[in-house]
Amino acid sequence: MKRYRKWAAVLAALCMMGTAGCASQTSDVPSEQPGSEGLTEPVSQETQEIIPESSREEAPSGSRPGGKETQPESTEETRETLPDDPDTFVQQKIIVATDIHYLAEELAGNRCQSFMSSVESGDGRVLQYGWEILDAFIDDVVEQKPDLVILTGDLTMNGEKQSHEELAQKLETLSENGIEVAVIPGNHDINNPYARKFTSDGTVKTDSITADEFAPNSSGRSDFGYVAADSRDPASLSYLYKLDDYYWLLMLDSCQYDPVNRVGGMIRGETYDWMEKQLGSAWEEGAQVITVSHHNLLDQSGVSREFYDDCTIEHNEEMIRMLYDYDVRLHLSGHLHLQHYKEDEDNGISEIVTGSLVMAPCHYGVLKIWNSGDIEYNAKSADVDGWAKRNSYKNRDLADFRTFSERFLNQVTYRNAVLDLRKHTMERRLFFSDEKIDEMARFYAKLCVYYYGGRMFEIADSVQNEKAYEYWTSIDYVSDLSDFLRNILEDDAKDFSHLTIHY
Predict the structure, then answer these.
(1) What is the pLDDT, as a whole number, of residue 153?
(2) Is residue 246 located within the same domain as residue 277?
(3) pLDDT by residue (tens digit) across 433-488?
(4) Within 13 Å and on the Cβ side, how many CA atoms surround 482?
(5) Does the residue 259 lie in any domain?
(6) Closest CA to 139 of 109, 104, 173, 112
(7) What is the mean pLDDT of residues 483-495?
């Protein structure tokens, strides 16, 4: 009854007034960490084996202000229906991708050594094939013919102007195929002092774009959501995008970039005022709102709370309260590079975090809104293998890209674990042999591959029986990675690639 009393209170106010007034902080600048020389890469069958991808309460009818009890009829000649119910069909189909971290090819110096060293010492993103992944993703989108593509920020590696312009040119392929694109910025995209061009001698500074350059009517940016927006927030790069009369998207700029970019996310006070006006209008018209931001609305996991700084929107309780009052049930975000979701039963809000397009298994999300009101989300890997075959690429990595990308993530996280464990051993805080360090690093790397892919449920029951697990738990909080691993194991063991929300 609490929710319905809030509905009544807000509705009364509207009647009186007329209308209602992880990624981590590590930059992508070449790391000063030592390279891989002298480190033993994991080579065992156990480590190299890639396991294939595995296969609320309802609101009462007519409870929303505006009185819309039925969905609008589809105007599509061909529509997706349920096999056992031809009257139930997909009303809207949206593809969601995030954290593309695109770098203009020229800025990568033809994959020069300084660029490759930065990638190999990074967090596991397969940026050495970022161009191929994006092209494969675009092909997937054209084939699936969604009503809209949403890109939830971190469009570029570090906000390079040239990267923004080149990415916009590539996205024009979607526009040419009649597919709309709506974008919002991420923490990497605007006023980024780490915008760099890679050369054989290292890196040199290059131009980053400003908020004004990201905004509409600038080069390469005018068609991607802003021109078609039904309302623009004067205080930020947030806007309202109406899919149709019933489904509205609030594209929220959660980034801080004045005077330079910051990792953390927040919503400006003036933006909250603008949001409430849009939510009030949606409520009056009986429209269902889906909100979108780069940063997370909810604390997704112990990992995001303790190890990735500034993943969750600052003072998120204010935003949650507003969305609760207006019966918003779904929020979409990115930033974590992790395939995950969380259902806040107290407030009736579900948040889906789509994994980074350039981190194994290179996920994007397919969101289907059925005419029944149910929303179905499924994560899907970009078909790089198929794209490479169609374009006659003779590259072993691309020919079996799922295996390559997961092996690359395995190797990067293995190396990071080895470096961490050796560091503490040298400081005499740990006393493990090289053999134990190798075993522990293999264990940690395996968990990271499954966890970032949203697939920990596949191995959660078995990993705590492994000897390496005992080694990690024995060091408790001495190592940051041990705490990271503990939070992975304490997270819900479910398939985070699939979610259905019943309205």
Answers:
(1) 94
(2) yes
(3) 999 999 999 999 999 999 999 999 999 989 989 999 999 988 876 777 888 888 88
(4) 17
(5) yes
(6) 173
(7) 88
CA–CA distances in Å: residue 197 to residues 31, 106, 160: 15, 8, 9
Amino acid type, 288: Q
pLDDT mean across residues, the chain: 83
Task: Confirm whether 11 is domain-assigned.
Answer: no
Q: What is the mean pLDDT of residues 81-104?
A: 89
Please calculate the CA angle 441-448-261 and round it to the nearest 5 degrees: 115
pLDDT value of residue 10: 35
Q: What is the pLDDT of residue 302?
A: 65
Kindly state the DSSP code that residue 312 receives in the 8-state scheme.
Answer: B
The total number of structural domains in the chain stands at: 2
Structural domain boundaries, residue 275: 89-390+497-501
CATH of the domain at 275: 3.60.21.10
Mean of pLDDT values over 13-32: 39
CA distances from 188 to 25, 209, 221, 235, 397 (A): 10, 11, 16, 19, 28
Q: Which residue has the tokens 């390559």?
A: 404
Q: Which two tokens stand for residue 28?
A: 């992508």
Alpha-carbon distance values, 466 to 49, 108, 414, 415, 470 (Å): 17, 41, 17, 20, 7
- How far is the C-alpha of 222 from the C-alpha of 207, rounded, in Å? 20
pLDDT, residue 83, reads: 65
Return phi, psi of residue 465, to 5°: -90, -5
